[in-house]
Amino acid sequence: MNISRKWLKEFVDIEATDREYAEIMTIAGQKVESYARMDDEIKNVVVGKVLSIVRHENSDHMWVCQIDIGENEPVQIVTGAQNVHEGDLVPACLHNSYLPGGVHITKGKLRGVLSCGMLCSFAELGLTQNDVPGAYADGIWILNDEDCHVGQDINEVIGNNDTIVEFEITNNRPDCYSLLGLARETAAAFNVPMKHHEPVVKGGGKGNLFELLDVEVEADDLCKRYCAKMVRNVKIEPSPKWLRQRLRSAGIRPINNIVDITNYVMVEYGQPMHAFDYRYVKGVKIIVRRAGEDKELTTLDGNVRALTPDMLVIADETRPVGLAGVMGGENSEIADDTVDVVFESANFDGTSIRKTALALGMRTDSSAKFEKNIDPMLTLPAVNRACELVELLGAGEVLDGIIDVINYVPEPYEMPLEPEKINALLGTNISTEDMIEYLRREEVPVEGMTIKVPSWRPDLRRMADIAEEVGRFYGYNEIETTLMRGATTRGGYSKSQLLENAAGATARALGFNEIITYSFVSPSIFDMVRVPADSPLRNTIKIQNPLGEDTSVMRTIALPSLLDILSRNYAHHNKSAKLYELAKIYLPKDGEPLPEEPKRFLLGSYGAKETFFSLKGEVEALLDALNVKEHEYVAITDHPSYHPGRCAALMIDGKQYGILGQIHPLVAQNYGISDEIFVAELDFTELQSELADERTFKALPKFPSVARDLAVVCDEAVTVAALEGCIKSAAGKLLKGINLFDIYRGTGIPEGKKSTAFSLVLRSDDHTLTDADIDPVMESVLKALAEKLNAVLR
Amino acid sequence: MKEMLEQIRVRALDALDAAQDSNELEALRVQLLGKKGELTAVLKQMGGLSAEERPVMGQLANNVRADIEKKLEARKVELKAKALEEKLKAEAIDITIPGDPVSLGHKHPMNKALDEAKEIFIGMGFQILEGPEVELAEYNFTKLNTEEGHPARDRSDTFYITDDDSVLLRTQTSPMQIRAMEAIKNPPIRVLAPGRVYRKDEVDATHSPMFHQIEGLVIDKGITMADLKGTLVTLVKSLYGEDAVTRFRPHHFPFTEPSCEVDVQCFKCHGAGCPTCKGEGWIELLGAGMVHPKVLENCGIDPEVYSGFAFGIGLERMAMRRFRISDLRLIFENDVRFLEQF
C-alpha cells in the first residue's frame, strides 16, 4: 500500500522527516518497505515567462527565447517547438537540470546560438495526457492556466513536492489498505489526534431513487452488503487539478470526474467502488448473482473474460454488467455522454473475489482490497463520501436516499481487558491505565474493563491479540530480554543424528565435499540412469502444479542428483571432484497419504586418483566409523546404472544395504562425463539397525604375533574372497589376520592364472608361537588351498 | 723419568686437543695408553728405580694416565657433538617446499551455518527434531490457524501432491510445531526442527523453489515474550558477535500472537543505511511470536496453563550473510571451487 504524505496530512499532522516517519511506523507495527520523494527525478526546472521570441538566425524551425525565471537577468533558451508565444508561462529546464529517466540538461550552442537550457513538454516531465487534460501534447507545455508563478519549482506545480511511502500491510489488517487506516495508525504511533471527516451529502436531485433502481442480492453468501446511490444530470469532464494530482500520487491514472471519484474514495476509505451508466442497466435492476449460465463478459479494459459458473457478477435483468469486485463491464462503462450514474459500494466475499481474479489473471486494485475481507461497515460512509465529492466538484445532482441491502447481522464484539494475563504473556509490568491509553490511541475504546472492538478490527478476538496491541505501543524493544526459567530439558542430538554427523565427518576426513541438491527432479532421470521401464522406482510422488518438468516429481533415487553435480563440476573443468550427500528420497506407501522419507548416504567421485578400490576403502572407513557390523561384498553384474564388472553390493546377514562401483559408461555419457565415475550409495536409514555392539575394551595381546607370507597360483576366476575364506577355515584359531599384498600376472605365471600373495598373522593367547606351532597350520592351509581351489604354492 | 712422564702428559694433552674425529682419538688412545703405548713403556722402566722413588713415580704415572683418560673422554663428547651438529647441518631442507597434499573435504556452507545454530540451541536445552517434507495440509496450514481460502494455500504459492489439496510439499517448517507438540504431549517442550521447505518461486539470486528453515518451539508454564527476546538475542549474539544489535518489530503470522520480526543492525553501515541493507540500516533476520492459543488448543495443550514461543529462520539467508555469499544459486550449484572455500 502506497500513500502520499501530503494526502496523509489531511488527516493527521505530524512533524517528522521521511526517515523518522518510516522508522517510527515500522517499530509501531506498520512496516515501511520503502519511501521515495516524487521530486527525486526532476531538478532545476522552473516556471519561466517568455519575454521575447525571435527566429534562430541559422534555422528556419528554431526559435530563440528570452525567458524570465524570476532572477535579475532573463536566460536565453533555444526551442524547436512551434507553440510558444510571447507572454506564455513554460517549464524551463535550466543549465544543469534533470528530467525523469536520468536526462541531464546542460547549456550549449544550437547552430551557433547559446541555449542555457531547454523548454519541455509535459511528457518530458513524466506526465500523461490524463494528468493534464487539455494540454497540448506535441510541443511545449503551456502553463498559463496552471495557477503558478514565475520562478516556481515545477515540482510544486505538478504536485511532486511529496513523499510516497510504501507499507507492507499484513493480512490481519485489511483496514490498513486505506489512507484512513494508515492515518489512524500514524496518529496512534505518534500519539497525536486524528482529524476525522464525516461526509455530508446535500442531495435533493430530482427523482425517487427507489422507483428508478432496485437491487437484488441473489448470492447472499458472497455479498454481505450492497449500497447504491444515484447521481443524475452528471457532466463528465476531467477532475480538478488537486484531485488528479492525488490520484497520481496514489499511482492511479485519472480518467474523468466520476471514475476518479470512485478511485479517490477507494484510496481514502479502502472501499472499492464502481460507477455504472444507468441507461445500460436494463430493467432498472441490479442483481448480484453467480455467473451461472453466462459464459463471458467484456470488461472495461476491452478484454473478453471467460466466466465460470461460480464467479460472482453484477447483472441487470438480462446480462452481467460487471465482474463483482474485480472490474466493471464495458457494456455499462461511464462515457462522455453519460447522464445518470449508479454508485455501487458493496462488500464481497474475499475468497470468492480472490479466486475469480486469480482464475482470470486480473488482480486489480479493487480485487486486491476485497480479498483481504474488508469491513462491511465501510460501504455506507464510502458511498456518501463519493456523493459528497460529486457535489463538491459540481459534477451532478445526488438523489436522496440510499439502497442498502444487508445480508449479515453486525455483531459488535466485546471482550474483557485482562491486564494480568497480558503482562504474564509479555513478561512486562504495564499498568492497566497505560493499556487502556494504548488502545484509545488506536481508537479501540475500553469501557470499564470491557474492550469495545471496532468493526474494522476483526483481528482483535482474544487476550493474545490485545497483548500484541499493548506490546507494540509499549514498544517491543522496551520489553526486557530474559532467559527461560522452569524445568530444565535435556537438549542434544538423537542417536541417528549423531550417526549422520559421524558419517559426514568421516566423509570429509576422506576428502569428500558435502553437496545439497534439490529433492524434486525431472521424470527423465530414470532414463538417464537406465532404470528399467517397469521398475517400481518409477512410481513417484508427483507435484500437481510444478514450476516445470525439471522439478515435477519427488526423487526415489538420489544417484541422479549426485551425477548431475558431478557433471556440472566436470563441465566447469574441475579436474577431480569427491562429493557426498546425505539425501532424502521419497517412496510412496500404499494406502498412506504420506510417503516414506528414508535417507541415503552417497559418495561420488571422478579424477585421476579414483578407482573402484579407493572407493571401496573409503566405504570401509565409513562403515568402521559408524561401527556397522560384519559385512561382505557381492559382485553385481546386472545393475543398469553400474559397470557390470565393477559393481558390488554391501551385504549384511544376506540383506543388501548399499551398492558401490563404477558408473556404467552409458550413464556417464548421459551426463556428459568421459572419465570413470565411482559412486557408493548406502541405505543410511536402514543401516542404522545393523550396527555392531558398542565398542568395549579388549586386553592387548600378551604374546607376540608371527607373520608368514604365502603366494599361491590359481585360476583367474578364483576370487580373493574365496582364497581368504579357504585360508581362514583351514588355519584355525591361531590365525588373527590376512592381508592381501600382491596380485601378479605375467612372466612365470601361466596364461589364465594369477599369483596371489597374502601375509598371514598368527598369534596365540597363551604362549609365544614357535615353528612347531606354525608349520602344521601352514601345511593345512596349503593343503586346503590346493584341494579346494586348485591353488598351489608359487 | 719424572720428566718423561711430564713430557708425555703435555704432548698427549696437546695431541688430544688437536684430534679432529673419533678415529684419531682412538689411535691416540692406543698410542698413549695401549699395551704397547708410551706410558706403558715408561712404566716398564720402573723396575730400575729406588724403593723411595718407586711409589712417587707410580703415583705420578697414575696421575698422568688419569689426566689423559679424562681428557680423552671430554674430547670424545666434544667431537660427538660436533659430528652431530655437522650431520644436522647437512640434513637441512628448504622448508618452503609445499607439504604433501592431503585433501580434506568441506561441509556445505549452509550446513555449517545450520550446525552453528544447532549447537547454540542444544546449549539451551533444545532437542533436534526432524519431520516429513511431503506433509498434510492439515499440519502445514489448518492446525496452524491458516484457514481454507488463505492466500498462502493458493496453488500459485504452494506445491500440491493431491488433487484435493490435502497433501503438499511443506511451505514452512512450522508444521513441526504441531508434530512436536503431538509427539511430546507434556511440556516442557524445547525443540529445534531444521529442514527443507518448498514454495513456488522461480530460481534467481535470492529465490529458490526449495530452501531450508529452522523452526524453534518452546512450550512451558510461564513462558513470556521477554523469554522469546532473550533467546533470540542470544542466538544473534552467538552468530554475529556480542556487539550485534537487534530490533524487534510487530508483524503477523497466523500461528503466533503477538508476532514479531527480528532485524539485526546492518554490519556494514551500523544503522546509517547503505546498499547492503537497502538504505534501511537494518537487515531482516527471522520471524517469531508467542504460540497462538488456537494452535495450542489444536494440539491438546491448555493455553490457560501453558504458553510458549516459536520462531522460524531462513537458513539460506543466514548462511549467505554469515559467509557473504552473493548469489543463492551458488548454494545449489555445488561447484567444488565454491565448496572448498568453507
Question: Mean pLDDT across all residues of chain A, rounded?
Answer: 94
Helical content of chain A stands at: 25-40%
Which chains make the largest contact?
A-B, 88 and 89 residues
Number of H- or I-type helical stretches of chain A: 21
First and last CA, distance of chain A: 89 Å
Q: Looking at the structure, what is the overall shape of chain A? A: elongated
Helix and strand topology:
The complex is a heterodimer of chains A (794) and B (342).
Chain A: E1 2-4, H1 5-8, H2 18-27, E2 31-37, E3 43-55, E4 63-68, E5 75-79, E6 89-99, E7 103-105, E8 108-110, E9 113-115, E10 117-119, H3 154-157, E11 163-168, H4 179-190, H5 209-212, E12 214-217, E13 223-232, H6 241-249, H7 257-269, E14 274-277, E15 285-290, E16 296-298, E17 304-306, E18 312-315, E19 320-323, E20 327-328, E21 341-348, H8 350-360, H9 365-370, H10 379-393, E22 397-398, E23 403-406, E24 413-416, H11 419-426, H12 432-441, E25 446-447, E26 450-453, H13 463-474, H14 495-509, E27 513-514, E28 520-521, H15 525-528, E29 553-554, H16 559-571, E30 577-584, E31 599-606, H17 612-626, E32 632-635, E33 642-652, E34 655-663, H18 665-670, E35 677-682, H19 684-687, E36 706-715, H20 720-731, E37 735-744, E38 753-762, H21 771-789, E39 792-793
Parallel strand pairs in A: 12-15, 27-30
Antiparallel strand pairs in A: 1-11, 2-11, 3-4, 3-6, 4-5, 6-7, 6-10, 8-9, 13-21, 13-22, 13-23, 14-21, 15-18, 16-17, 18-19, 19-20, 24-26, 25-26, 28-29, 30-31, 31-35, 32-33, 33-34, 34-35, 36-38, 36-39, 37-38
Helix pairs in contact in A: 6-7, 7-10, 11-13, 12-13, 14-17, 20-21
Chain B: H1 2-18, H2 22-33, H3 38-44, H4 53-90, H5 109-123, E1 127-128, E2 134-136, H6 137-140, E3 167-169, H7 175-184, E4 189-198, E5 210-220, H8 225-240, E6 246-253, E7 256-265, E8 282-291, H9 293-298, E9 307-314, H10 315-323, H11 329-333, H12 336-339
Parallel strand pairs in B: 1-4
Antiparallel strand pairs in B: 2-3, 4-5, 5-9, 6-7, 7-8, 8-9
Helix pairs in contact in B: 1-2, 1-4, 2-4, 5-8, 5-10
